[in-house]
Amino acid sequence: MTIPAWQASWPYVALLFGMGIALALAEIVIPSGGALTVLSLLAFGGAVVAAFLMGSAPGLIALAAMAVTAPLLMYLFIRIWPHTPLFRRLILRGPSGVGKAGDLAHLAPEELKGRIAVAKTALRPAGKITLDGRQIDCVTEGDLVPAGRRVKILEVHGARVVVRVVPEED
After folding, report:
1. Residue 65's pLDDT band (boundaries 50, 70, 90)?
2. 103-158: per-residue pLDDT in tens?
3. Can you give the residue ranges of every domain in the chain?
């Protein structure tokens, strides 16, 4: 079987090699579900096969180039991927700061007892209340409380805040 001259030439090997690199780098920023990675591997494999069709020395040179390029691409992937918008959408972020819902570290339990707050969500029996503009996770004594009702803080044990509905004034 004879091989076409264009298929067993350095420009063809370089083209396939360049396509492999471009597809691997595109996989970092384009969500393809791995399709670009497969195409990249096929391009790299095609470059090595085309180089081996020219002879064993060119094939080994192409294989050595792959051995250098693969770790370099993996390094770039690890360094760049966490900073892409797709990665940020896939990975959950940790707490974004102090003063968010349920954060009682800045308040002493004595400061909360007896205070009046507003139910931000329906308390069934757990939910959130708003006190001084801050959201606090809480539980009722067992009652269901609709959102918007005023509640009184009865107890604070660590992060557990117990509330009771304040009777509406007529």
Report:
1. confident
2. 565 677 788 899 999 999 999 999 999 998 889 999 999 889 999 999 999 999 88
3. 10-90, 109-165
What counts of helices (H) and strands (E) characterise the chain? 5, 5
Q: What value, to the nearest 5°, has the Cα angle with vertex 85 and ends 79 and 86?
A: 90
Residue for token digits 């044990």?
A: 157
| Mutual angle of helices 35-54 and 56-80, in 10-degree steps | 160
Closest CA to 139 of 149, 155, 116: 155
- CA atoms of 36 and 21, how far apart (whole Å): 11
Burial grade of 68 (CB within 10 A; 0-12, 13-18, 19 or more): exposed
Looking at the domain that runs over 109-165, which CATH code has it been given?
A: 2.40.50.140
* 99 closest CA partner among 135, 74, 75, 69: 135
Q: Which helix (H) or strand (E) holds 69?
A: helix 56-80
